[in-house]
Write a structure and sequence with these properties.
Layout (H helix, E strand, L loop, with lengths): L1 E6 L3 H14 L4 E5 L3 E6 L2 H31 L5 H14 L4 H15 L4 E3 H8 L1 H37 L6 E7 L2 E5 L7 H5 L12 H12 L3 E4 L8 H11 L3 E3 L4 H4 L1
Parallel strand pairs: 1-4, 5-7, 7-8
Antiparallel strand pairs: 1-3, 2-3, 5-6
Helix pairs in contact: 1-2, 2-3, 2-4, 2-6, 3-6, 6-9
Length: 263
Amino acid sequence: MEQLSIITDTKAIHDTLLEKISSEIGNEATVDVGKNSVVLKSKDEHSKEKIVNAITKTIVEQYENKLISKLINQNYFYFNLPDRKRIYKKALNYTGNDAAFNTLVNTKLKEYLGTTDKLMIDGFVNFRLKDYQNELEEVIDKAVDDFMVEKEYKEFIKLLKYFVEIQNPKYNIINIIPSGENYHIYNEAFEDITALCSKDFLKGDDEKISSDDLLISILISVAPRKICIHKCECITNTELISTIKQVFCKKVTICGGCKFCDN
């Protein structure tokens, strides 16, 4: 019968470990509980494997979020506190499925326990799980990239809204009807004004402008009092619709069906 002595540094870790041992092992191992320690005696390789699984789950549950917070504060200290909190939440979304991290911690734990029968959980995490921390750093880097993209997008929307506010409306209503990869634009009398509105944006190299970018540019330029989007289901770029709604807010309506939508 193999014996393993585990030092738990906090009550939370101690209680979590006992909970995992109970659910993972049951009566397959002898458990002696001290104030800050747990001594386990495994009966066979199968029960030893379950002990390692219990410790692995304890480490991931008790340390992962704390490590993420620590690494964010350490590597991205120049962000203000609210921004670091947003990055933290995004990083947690990436670690929602802990399977890969569990496997990494489990592997390192088996390697370590192959050389000793004593485990100080806190020391093991800090000094033996550098690969795990490196993986978490990569997760945090992705979260920061997402955060920066969203921040730049919000600043872009804010700028577009400002341009709309300083423009004098050239039309009361603009009707947008998608046609393949392009868009037709009609005024309130349903006269096609696509060419008229596009001419200032289709000069020289600007002819390479995407239809989505062209539509946004036109809407910003003419600053209509109202926008009605027809055949919304035919617009594959949902981000385009979101952008229009964010810039023009209550001015935007989605047509639920009309004779122009049926054509």
